[in-house]
Amino acid sequence: MWTMEPLAKTSPSRRTWWQLVPQTLRHARFNRHEIAGSLGDLGTFLPLLVGMSAQNGLNFASALFFAGLFNIVTGLTFSIPMAVQPMKAIAAVALTEGLTTPQILAAGATVSLIILVLGLSGGINWLNRIVPRSVVRGLQLALGLTLLMKGMQMVSATRQWWGLDSYLTGLCCAVIVLLLFFSRRIPAALLLFGIGMLITVIHQPAIWQSLGWGLTFPAWSPIAFHDFVTAFPKAALPQIPLTTLNSVIAVCALSVDLFPTRAADPRKVSISVGMMNLVACWFGGMPMCHGAGGLAGQYRFGARTNGSILFLGAVKIVLAITLGASLMAICQSFPQSVLGVMLAFSGMELALVCRDQTSRSDAFTMLLTTGACLGLNNIAIGFVLGLAMAYCLKLGWFRLEDRGEDVHSTVTPLPTTDTSGSTPDSSDSATVNHAAGIQR
Fold first, then answer.
1. I need a labelling partner for 223 at 20 to 30 A (CA). Which of 182, 242, 399, 411 fits?
2. Considering only CA atoms, which of 52, 13, 242, 42 is closest in space to residue 137?
3. Residue 274: CB partners within 8 Å, gap ≥ 6?
């Protein structure tokens, strides 16, 4: 068990997670602001969950249940509105390359195991230092564009100008997203999910008759060794640097800005990310992690305490247990035009964070990584080529900048937070806030 600040007369080394829960719960508030804030991260969660359920056969009920369970555990661990969201790289690869459910689960378990080891050993900051941010941004851009194209192709596949599931439906949904892009009252993803469910029921009335209350619980979902072998280069490898950057380093830096007296500890966040999927992967749970964008989204919608996370987790668990089987049937018949728009905007959201690569060397490395990933259709090779180019520029073997510019910016890592409570550089903090805020 990890430790935090001592309470009363007990030594910090003897404080267990269970003993710290009462202190964490004292921060929780349950009011309309916290409830509104709990909806702040649905723009990422719903499209990827529905997409993998409809396209890859992921069990909707199990994924929703464990997402809720992780919300509850997170709310009992952190006093801030720490979001729980899908691992975007794994989701993007799964949706665009057609990974099977066991492969998705294997990728999530692999990433979590590595993050857990890095968290326990203190290697998170080391990995953040050796992997240039420009390479990570290149991976994000490639995955974002891939998801965007997949969404467009799904809308195009309807091959209808008019109808419930058509080009016109997709266009209307896109307009809705744009109109509600910065709305703090109505999450666009939640509205589109409702529209998609309504269209499904209208188009296939038999599904409405199958809706009903019932108890659905996660079931054992075995994973074979070859699933791990297949998933590692395709999905796990690109997710590892994204998780260390966005789920640990950036989210801790952002927590210092938003909650200076309650900032999250990188080691504690690493352990949290590592533990959740090592349990859920054997029962069909979608690969999950924390994220700076989710924390910013929850905060912008009004969340200030862990009460929003606890509320959201309870709602997810209740829906998964009582309506899980019915919702799974709806997801399998979800209109392609609506789902395509949801995935397209999720892809753009993922790609937009790359705007912080403003120097010529950083942009070149990012674009090389992106081009290699897309052109060679191999994320692992793209990652290696981007990493090699970044260090060639670092060592001065190639020069892309004017002599007056600093080529060493290519390997500048994100700011880190430590247990001393140091605050990240203000310019990098602004970048984290901006990149996170784009999600909503």
1. 242
2. 242
3. 112, 113, 115, 116, 117, 119
Tell me the CA distances in angstroms from 426 to 131, 285, 296, 363, 430, one per residue in order: 22, 37, 16, 22, 6
* Residue span of the structural domain in which 243 resides: 24-357
Is residue 240 in a domain? yes
289 forms beta bridges with 85
pTM: 0.74
Whether 11 is covered by a domain: the verdict is: no
CA distance readout (Å), 410 to 33, 244, 392: 41, 18, 10
Q: Is residue 431 part of a domain?
A: no
| DSSP secondary structure of 134-177 | HHHHHHHHHHHHHHHHHHHHHHHTT--SSSSSSHHHHHHHHHHH
Q: Residues, the chain, total?
A: 440
Q: What is the DSSP letter of 376?
A: T
Alpha helices per DSSP H over 243-395:
250-258, 266-280, 292-300, 307-332, 336-352, 360-375, 379-394
| Residues in Cβ contact with 52 at an 8 Å cutoff, skipping those fewer than 6 apart | 58, 63, 91, 94, 95, 104, 286
Whole-angstrom distance, CA of residue 113 vs CA of residue 34: 32
For the chain, what is the domain count? 1
Question: 289: helix, coil or strand?
Answer: strand
Q: How far apart are CA 61 and CA 217, in angstroms?
A: 8
For residue 14, give the amino acid letter.
R
> Which residue in the block uniquely carries the two structure tokens 């969950």?
49
Task: Say if 326 falls within a structural domain.
Answer: yes
pLDDT tens per residue across all 440 residues of the chain: 333 333 333 344 456 666 778 888 888 888 888 887 887 777 678 888 988 998 898 999 899 999 999 999 999 999 999 989 899 889 989 998 899 999 999 999 999 999 999 888 878 878 777 888 899 889 889 888 988 998 899 899 999 999 899 999 999 999 998 998 877 677 787 888 889 888 988 888 777 766 666 677 888 888 999 999 999 999 999 899 888 877 888 788 788 888 988 888 888 899 899 888 898 999 999 999 998 778 877 887 778 898 999 999 999 999 899 887 677 777 778 898 998 898 888 888 878 888 888 899 999 999 999 999 999 888 888 889 999 999 999 888 988 876 655 444 444 444 444 433 333 343 344 444 444 443 33
